[in-house]
Amino acid sequence: MEQHVWNSCEQSLDTDKPLSPQALVSMRSLIINPHTSNSVISSILETLTRSLQLSADSLTHHHTLKLLTELASYRTHLSPIIFRSLNSSSLLSTDSTLLAAESLAALSSIAEGDPTLPIELDDRLFVSLCFGPSVSARLWLLRNAERFGISTNVLFTVFLGFTKDPYPYVRKEALDGLVGLCKFGVFEDCSVIEGCYYRGVELLKDPEDCVRCAAVGVVNKWGQMLIAANQEDKRDWSNTVFMQLCSMVRDMCVGVRIESFSALGNIQMVSEDILLQTLSKKVLSIIKGKKSQSLHTTESFEILASSAAGAFIHGLEDEFDEVQKSALCSLRKLIVLSSEFAGQALNLLMDMLNANSMVVRLEALETLHHMATYECLNVQEIHMHMFLGTLIDNNDLIRSAARKIFKLVKLPSLELFRLSTNGLLESLEIYPQDEAGVFSVLFHIGQNHGNFTACIIKEVSQEIEPVSNGELGLDSIRVAALLVLSISVPLSHNQNGQSFPPTLFSYAVTLLGRISSALNDIVDQNTLLAYLSQCSRSYMSSGMEVEGEESSRPVVNVDIATNTSNPVAMPSMQRGNENSEIHSMISCESGDVGTSIVECQLEEHDQIRKSLNLVFAQVKDAWLLVQSSYSSEALKILRACKEKLAIFTPALLENVGALALTSQYLHVIKLLVKIWGHVVWKVQSCEIGELEILLGKLERRLREMRCRFIGFSKEEEAHVLELTLLSCVLRLSKVEICCYLTTLKKLTTTVSCIEFLHKEGSIELSNFVMEVKKTLHEVGTSIGGVSCSSFMFKKLINHYSAKQFSFSKVTHLYAALSVPGNDFENPLPFIPGLPVAIPLEITLHNVPRETRLWVRMAMSEDLVQFFFLDLKILGGCDVVRKFTHSIPFYRTPKAGSFALSVCIVMELLFEDAHSVKSFGGPKHALVHLCPEEEVYLKMI
């Protein structure tokens, strides 16, 4: 077929005439067809190159260049040939600037696909082409000038010159080019910088919107260079540039106003009086009579300062949300420069909390959070009504942003603190789904305002106390919230010499799950339980209980290793660490130090280590039962071991990894027991395919043990490899089993790994490994085929002897993902046939940066798509890496709705490569790092 098309194309070719449209179309169809033979492609390349050299028709050149660019894109191995051909063609001359620009565009497109092909253009030729008659060519050359290796001085001269061009878009590109030159930072002559800056100032009055917008960028970037170059008058120049940018915030063009406010935030040295002027529409008295060295006269300064009057007021009152957002972003950067400026700006920010746009309200809250972070948010009673209104906003993002501020804000009076806590409690009653967020805020503000909290708790203590029958009213969400507020203050915290009821710590234990879930960014559940129990028991032992009330107060008696002879102070919390812990509990009466939580955790670590070693010993005993044909009894022992693991909720990451490894090891042994019963004793009925399923599960579990746990000792690694050997031997011992050659290869590879450990002097080869080596040698020289080999491998099973696994200090690799706001009732929208973005919140634990991770998205077993997660680009640390990423799914079906199964998988480069149906996907075996998550989509 392709030869027929090419023959018909050749018939219409004539070297003396331009290529006909039919020939061009035919050649393009052959170029984009991946099955076109190399010989035809070579003929097309030769024909197009010849046409480019001989034809004088500009339209033919245009189409020929496009075809050559496509040819380089589809046949990348031809890119260097096409690039050299175009680079040496006569089109790169001043005869036709348009054709020269098109040729350079083609070269640039090819070079993008192959960075080893640099474009080097002579400075003189570049300048000549820029001054050519074609405006479109001039535009393209100015926009792409940095690609051609032109010297910086030539570029500066060309850009500065074309800022006077009669065409507005040329002036814009010239100004953008000047902004781009700032990154080189090679201009040391202050007069050159000043001249470029004033050219930008001059073009701020250009009649064209696009030019004024680009001029703002020049004033911003070159103004900052001018500030840096004038160290003696740095503040003076900084004020001048700032005011010059302020003069553009009332421009008629929305884009200019947005760009101006964005630029204002980049000036980080501004006098306080100039900043205050931006918040007042009336020219302040402190501005009048001032003089600037950079503006030379007092009159010039006053004129420019008047343009800064009310700049931020105009921005925050702008009719366009984009301008308001830009003004808020700039205000957020400047607000830390002056406490007085921050105080006056607060009134404007509070008004923005009532804006119609949710985006603007969120931006205002983010600015307030920034102020609270830098401790310049001074909230007054006049602000509280608007501030508290955000806590009951109908948008959950607004409420969440407001709670972030309350965590940090410092309230100056008890009345403001009471208003804040009442506002949080009201928010909780209206939106009970915000329980975790509100609990967390109450705990934070309680810690930040200890005296105020003690007063409030004493006022409401009757609400928390048990009712007449001795039961707590913990079904009330308000009571639960007050308990959280109360435990945020140390037990020893006094107000007017009296402590609030310390039994509240005991009541809080009954809500441990809800409270620990809300405080997971501060303290883990075990540490919180230890603290609450310590306070409760310390209180009881110190004789603080009122006579006659002991029987009606539920004190939770939790068994923890701690000294309870004295009441204990509230420990300090370390924020910002997901695994933060309460470091110590210090006695506040006699000065004695109680048992620290670190000691408790060490005791927990020792207890878990002993328990796991006991589990491993029981597993070894269970395996002896298996070899004696007592498989059912062995399975009971394994189930009991599994139940023992379930009681542990470790606080140390080391214990988390050890428990996960033990659980995985129990799964492996359980599968081996079942397979052993099928293959060796044949005491269990084996349905068709059941043994193959069990063997597949066993191989996956063993693969996970090898790659999802880091830090094995050499003995432990050899133990896992021997289990892999046993898995292969069990598979090879069945005549009817599939994947014989693959399993044999895997067996050989595993033996090699064990031998490598032996050569390092780390381990001794077991009898089972030695027998496997001999059998592999015999299989390699036997002529009996598969049936003979299966008999030989079956004899190996009896040579395997059980070993006891040891407690391991390993690191567990795992992940978690979720699709926020998505469920069966709230599907994501999509258009059939078009790609759809799946927003995923991904958390990776202990995953090294070099790991190859993929997002697996499957509609069915036959319709799977993979997306590569490049951890080097995503950033973060190797311990916990959390990010949100939108993953495109391309193969949306022509259906009203569908569901995707999404999970994170890790590619195992040490496994043999295998074919995958998804183009561009992983080429090796995969291991799941998290359970699959269902994503629901519905057609728009």
DSSP strand count: 11
Strand content: 5-15%
Largest sheet: 6 strands, mixed
| Rg over C-alpha atoms, rounded to the nearest angstrom | 37 Å
What is the helix tally? 38
Termini separation: 41 Å
What would you call the structural class?
A: alpha+beta
Shape estimate = flat
Q: What is the average per-residue confidence, as pLDDT, rounded to a whole number? A: 79
Residue ranges: pLDDT <50 for 5 or more in a row? 494-498, 539-599, 783-787
Secondary-structure blueprint:
Elements: H1 2-11, H2 21-32, H3 38-54, H4 58-74, H5 79-87, H6 97-113, H7 123-130, H8 135-143, H9 152-162, H10 168-181, H11 190-202, H12 209-229, H13 234-246, H14 254-264, H15 272-277, H16 298-308, H17 311-316, H18 321-334, H19 339-352, H20 358-373, H21 381-389, H22 396-408, H23 414-430, H24 435-448, H25 450-464, H26 477-487, H27 504-509, H28 512-518, H29 525-541, H30 597-627, H31 631-646, H32 653-681, H33 690-707, E1 709-710, H34 714-732, H35 740-759, H36 767-781, H37 785-796, E2 811-812, E3 814-818, E4 828-830, E5 836-845, E6 853-858, E7 864-869, H38 871-874, E8 880-889, E9 897-907, E10 926-928, E11 933-939
Parallel strand pairs: 4-11
Antiparallel strand pairs: 1-2, 3-5, 5-8, 6-7, 6-9, 9-10, 9-11
Helix pairs in contact: 1-2, 2-4, 3-4, 4-5, 4-6, 5-6, 6-8, 8-10, 9-10, 10-12, 11-12, 12-13, 12-14, 13-16, 14-18, 18-20, 19-20, 20-22, 21-23, 22-24, 23-24, 24-26, 24-28, 25-26, 30-31, 30-32, 31-32, 32-33, 33-34, 34-35, 35-36, 36-37
